[in-house]
Amino acid sequence: MKAKTRFLIAIAILGLLMTGPFIVTSFLVWVDMKEAERKMLLDLLLSRLPIGTMMTLFGFAIGVGVLHKLFKQYVEGLLGMAEQLRLMLGANRNFRVALGGPPEVQQLAQAANELAQQRDLLMDDVDAQIARAKSSVEEEKNRLAALMSELAQAVVVCNLDGRILLYNNRARLQFKALAQGPMADAGGALIGLGRSIFSILEKAQLEHAEGVIRQRMGAGKTAIANFVTTTVGGQLLRVQMVPVRAVAEAVDERGMTGYVLSIENITRMLEQDARRDLALHELTEGSRSALGSIRAAVANLIDYPDMDSVLRERFVKVVDDEADRMSQRLDRTMNLFSDSMKTRWPLEDVLGLDLIAAAQRRIEQQLKLPTKTEDVDDALWVKADSFSLVFALVFLASRLQDHYAPRELRFRLSVEGKLAYLDLIWAGPAMSSETFYTWEIESMQIGGESSSLSVRDVVDRHGGEIWYQREKAAHRAFFRFVLPVATPAAEAEVEERRVTGRPEYYDFDLFKFDDQAIDLDRKLSDLAYTVFDTETTGLEPSKGDEIIQVGAARIVNQRLLQQETFNQIVDPERPLKPESIPIHGITEDMVRGQPNIDIVLPAFHAFCEETVLIAHNAAFDMRFLQLKEERTGLRFNQPVLDTLLLSAVVHPNQESHKLDVILERLGIQIDSRHNALEDAIATGEVFLKLLPLLEEKGIVTLRQALEAAEKTYFARIKY
User: 383: Cβ–Cβ under 8 A, 6 or more apart, which residues?
Assistant: First the structure.
């Protein structure tokens, strides 16, 4: 029975206790009295009825007030304490019951806090023992995770339904670069845990490759399949598939539980090959006609030695012109072919500052020669074979030390267009061009280390150039290495890998993860979610306020994937309200030039498809999305869970269900807030904490959660 119902029953009992004895006594006296006595008593009662009624009502009001106070302190206070005790038992170990209410309740709260303290000491001891027992397992798991995350090749692991279970950083970056349309414009990614690989690669080809593997496994051959496929954007991918073989407790009748895909984008390589083949074809066909013209002219000159000088000069001119055209065509073709050959040596994207630091370290350690830097572009990335290039720099430094004994060396790095200039500078006498040429072509040797390459070989490997130059005014000279600058896409890849650390692109429990279909009777713990938040120009969507930021993160297998996020500022196409800017921190300059809602909303719709939506005060955010349905033609039809309502379901006796209050109540630490993505992540953390608390109340499925949320008081709020 609910507390409110019990309170109403108590009031009814109080009323009966106050009026019942008087009514019963009056009835008994009335029965025994004579008619004259009854008339006398009735006149007496009617004359005193107003004051008696007032006294009764006044006493009843005092009684209700006292009863309400006692009910508030003992019944509702104890119910609130019970909710706080469950918080200590589950979601927030560090939470303690507030010492409020009457002395007896305070003593009970104090005793509960002392028991919680003892429980924490025991749990800390148990946790320490479990941590020691799990350390070796965690170390092995971390090795596998690091291997998966840092592989240079794109790798994706799928179950037999084509759901992505694992992927590495390279795969995420590669498929992000392949995103087309609104998804690319809004910074979305094609890949994610629990998503279907069939949205990226052609389903028929994957199923055919799977069939080939099963056939090879049945024949006892190496289980592998290779194919080339085309993406929606026209990119060519080379894919290799190998099986994940079944184990005893998870046997597939056909011998496998999933497959591993190794994916390589071969578009650029094929384009280079096509350009080279075209150049060779043009050289062959062009040379054939030119040789025909030369042959005919020479034959005429041989057959008619006595022809007049004007005609002879004309034939000689034909030979000269055709030979010149052949020479130009040959030079052009060889240049193209030479560039193609140079790119065959694998070069890595290296931060120029790191390259210089490595060279400085080796020069100072091996040659004991001081080094400095000047005018270094610390944000410049170059494509280089870092080992051979550093070796060449140290080799030149050793030759300078042997012949000119400089007091120190300096490094300089700058960029001009697509070329980077790396300079090795020293002060000293001029060097002859013959000396530089000798150093350039001899095999490199530094102390006991030697290389079969020369400085010229290293430069050719990079498709670059090197020269010697004097700075007469400064009495200095330098060697200049001309190197290729890393392409913008590659630069972004390396920079992202550099700053984000090890990502959450793997979960070794995901082979047990079932299909992602949204079923209302499915367990909450088994579903995939998109938790999102919006920042807006104001709080009145029906009066013209617009979305200015959408932030979202995915929850898969009860894990908040903070690196599978959607974060996009939106141009609202209207001025921002000055009073709203301090709240969300987004200014007019930040929204200017950003995509509008027509671009961002389709990208967000694709990001959250096949997932349950989660938001805090979801009615507010969903109203903004609903008002854009007619404009964009998109409907967000999936179920929506609201952490505000779920908090009211779990803790109905707590006074506040604001997000900040819930975070504190559940013991969740968030560094910063009031940015759409940060608020979405905070909401996701709250939802994961609420899951076990909902289960304690018997709310296990999505349907049960939706029904319970609809019964709360806050579900009446409309925007």
Answer: 347, 348, 349, 350, 462, 483, 484, 485, 486, 487, 490
